[in-house]
Design a protein that fits this description.
Elements (H helix, E strand, L loop, with lengths): L2 H11 L10 H7 L3 H25 L8 H23 L1 H7 L10 H11 L4 H31 L1 E2 L2 E2 L14 H24 L1
Antiparallel strand pairs: 1-2
Helix pairs in contact: 1-7, 3-4, 3-6, 3-7, 4-5, 4-6, 6-7, 7-8
C-alpha cells in the first residue's frame, strides 16, 4: 500500500470524525476552544502512533482469542503515559480536558486501527496509518473548535477578534451547538468530497 493512499484515507476518504463518525463523545465535549482541540489531537496522535507501532511489532505473537484485551492494555499504557506527561508539563490543558484524556483508551478510532490495520501490517505502514488517522482527527476537531470558539466566544486561541461590543452566540460553546456545527461540518465535507469525485 502506498503512503500517499494511507494519508488520503486517513485525512479524507476514511476521516475518523467526518466520515466514520467514531469517537464522537470527546469531539463534542472538548472542541469548545482551539487550544483544547489541539491538545486532544496531540494526545490522540501520540497514542495512535505508539500503539500502532507496538501492536504491529508484536502482532505475530498475540493469540487471536485474546488480541482485543492485549490491544486495550497496550493502548491504556500509552494513554497513561500521555496523561502523566500532560499533568506534568501542560497542567492547564490537562485540567481543561479532564476525564476525556483517560477515555482515549476506549476511543473506537484507536481500537479500530489496532484491529483493522496494525494487527495486519508492518511497523512502518502501521505508524503511517496511525499518523494519518491522527491528522484526519486533528483536521476535524481543530476546524470544529475554531468555528465554535469564534462564534461562541468571539476569540481564536484566546485572542479577542471582534472587540468588546461583539455579542457572542453562547449556544456554540455548549454541547448542543457542537452537535449542530458538527452536523453542518460533516455535510459540507461530504458534499465537497462527492463533488470532487464526480469532476
Amino acid at each position: 500500500m502506498k503512503i500517499s493512499t494511507i494519508f488520503k484515507n486517513g485525512i479524507i476518504k476514511e476521516n475518523p470524525v467526518l466520515v466514520q463518525m467514531i469517537g464522537m463523545c470527546s469531539v463534542l465535549a472538548i472542541t469548545n476552544t482551539v487550544e483544547n482541540s489541539l491538545g486532544m489531537s496531540a494526545a490522540v496522535i501520540a497514542v495512535l502512533l505508539l500503539s500502532n507501532i507496538v501492536i504491529s511489532t508484536i502482532r505475530k505473537f498475540i493469540p487471536s482469542k485474546i488480541r482485543i484485551p492485549i490491544f486495550i492494555v497496550v493502548i491504556a499504557t500509552f494513554v497513561t503515559m500521555v496523561q502523566m506527561f500532560m499533568n506534568a508539563y501542560a497542567q492547564s490543558l490537562y485540567q481543561s480536558l479532564g476525564i476525556f484524556i483517560p477515555l482515549i483508551v476506549v476511543n473506537c478510532l484507536i481500537l479500530a486501527r489496532a484491529e483493522s490495520f496494525a494487527s495486519k501490517n508492518g511497523v512502518f505502514l502501521s505508524a503511517m496509518d496511525g499518523l494519518a488517522m491522527g491528522l484526519g482527527y486533528t483536521v476535524a476537531v481543530v476546524a470544529l473548535g475554531a468555528v465554535r470558539e469564534i462564534l461562541g466566544s468571539g476569540s481564536f486561541l484566546g485572542m479577542n477578534l471582534f472587540g468588546e461590543n461583539f455579542q457572542a452566540a453562547a449556544v456554540f460553546v455548549s454541547p448542543a451547538g457542537a452537535f449542530i456545527l458538527l452536523g453542518i461540518l460533516i455535510g459540507i465535507f461530504n458534499v465537497t468530497i462527492k463533488s470532487k469525485a464526480t469532476n
